[in-house]
Please model this.
Amino acid sequence: MGGLLENKICLLTGAGSGLGRSAALLAAAEGAKLALGDWDDEGGRETVRLIAESGGESVFLKTDVTKSENVKALVRNALDTYGRIDCAVNNAGVEGARNKTADYDEAEWRKVIDINLTGVFLCMKYELPEMVKAGGGAIVNVGSTASIGGVATMPAYVASKHAILGLTRTTAMEYGEHNIRANIIFPGSFRTPMSERLFGVDTIEETVKPLTPMRRLATADEVAESIIWLCSDRSSWVSGSGMSVDGAKRAG
Ligand SMILES: NC(=O)c1ccc[n+]([C@@H]2O[C@H](COP(=O)([O-])OP(=O)(O)OC[C@H]3O[C@@H](n4cnc5c(N)ncnc54)[C@H](O)[C@@H]3O)[C@@H](O)[C@H]2O)c1
Model:
């Protein structure tokens, strides 16, 4: 039996680290061929190397998701290499500085919104027409528990993650007739360079455990599993959905 993503062409952003790298490796193991983007050239190339090492296939293009020319080039690279795009994982994101709303630096606000919200918009803007041409597709946007709840001192992050929930639902309504599904995941905290920056490499476990009913810190691989399923045909009737992947952090 083939993998869950056998013969699928998958575009993925933020591929150079954390969840993006985990999802890329898992997608390749499930049979996908990947067109990867990240603004971190070194991280992206390392992911390609790791995929090749495990027998998979991928290409990488240095991409800043806030720049439409970069996003267009990423989509073009997928098409030139593999001919179409079946799945897109819009994962690139930043946490931004921490401060209360009235003290939040305006330039920092704009930066976080630009990457986390406009970046996802631009990716979908250029992925969708190609999926329409191909006769369908699956989009997975990476939200957060911050898509459905507040986080004190992270106003820009929370606003951006709430906004991409609305954008995902809207896209699902607009493109359902083209056999395109759009979903969003809401991960709780899991260990990556981002969460280590937020909670401290050595203190992350003890900080996150009490906030999580399952009383542990998840791995990026555990979160990546949800992305793979939402990309696959096994989730064929799931669209416009938000999936919590958080050890019951947001239960109830
Ligand atoms: N780690 C967590 O606990 C957690 C929880 C909930 C949601 N998330 C979300 O998961 C996603 C991945 O985060 P992560 O934890 O793997 O973080 P990470 O910092 O390890 O990886 C993020 C990747 O995105 C890339 N990136 C950032 N801005 C970019 C841009 N403008 N253009 C292209 N690439 C860019 C970075 O270079 C990096 O490789 C993010 O959207 C994040 O908000 C993470």
Notes: Helices lie at 18-29, 41-53, 68-82, 106-134, 155-175, 193-199, 204-208, 220-231. The longest helix spans residues 106-134. DSSP finds eight helices and seven strands in the chain.
